Amino acid sequence: MKRKKKVLVLLGSPRRKGNSSILAEKIAEGAESEGAEAAFVFIHEMKIEPCRSCYACQVPGSKGCSIDDEMQKLYPLMMEADAWVIASPVYWFTMSAQIKLWMDRCFAFPAYAEDPFSTKKIAIAMSYGGEDPFDSGCINALRTFQDAYGYVGAQIVGYAYGSAMKAGEIKKNRVLMAAAEELGKKLVKAVR
Asked: What is the model's pTM?
């Protein structure tokens, strides 16, 4: 029997039912329709400290990050997952602090497995205020994801992003909701 493909959904909004979370859930629905199993992590409620730049994770024979916090629960989930969905609202012209904090702690991820990023397939879900993804800062965040994951060899399969301010408002954008679901299907198909 084939193992189900695993998708880890990282919700980086302080609102559980915020617009970026809704997009991520729609991506997960698409992934599940292709037989994948989705697990959700609400980063805002986790106790994750900032990187201390101690470099303990970078020395030969390292056992991983030296910070004993809830990020230690995430590293195994990140390793087990075939794909990640990263969801963030735009805050002050880039990704949320929750996602940036998580990304900074990914510096230690290679201490847990050899070349762990190269097998990951990634989908990005973002919401922003205003009408323009450029002047809202959404594009800044997307470029950060492109640069970071290009550098470590992970593949971004696609993006779902759109304008919405009030929680849940993104649902009105039916074209975007359908595109997010299709992205979930594409994400799973990209996993080998």
From this structure: 0.96
CA–CA dist 186, 122 (Å, integer): 10
Residue ranges per structural domain of the chain: 6-190
Homologous superfamily in CATH for domain 6-190? Flavodoxin domain (3.40.50.360)
Q: What would the DSSP string read from start to end of the chain?
A: -PPPPEEEEEE-SSSTT-HHHHHHHHHHHHHHHTT-EEEEEEGGGS--PPP----GGGSTT--S-S--STHHHHHHHHHH-SEEEEEEE-BTTBS-HHHHHHHHHGGGGGGTSSSGGGG-EEEEEEEESSS-TTTTSHHHHHHHHHHHHHHHT-EEEEEEEEE--STTGGGG-HHHHHHHHHHHHHHHHH--
Over residues 77-96, the pLDDT tens digits come to: 999 999 999 999 999 999 99
Q: How far apart are CA 123 and CA 29, in angstroms?
A: 13
Contact assessment for residue 121 and residue 82, using Cβ atoms and an 8 Å cutoff: yes
Band of residue 3 on the pLDDT scale cut at 50, 70, 90: confident
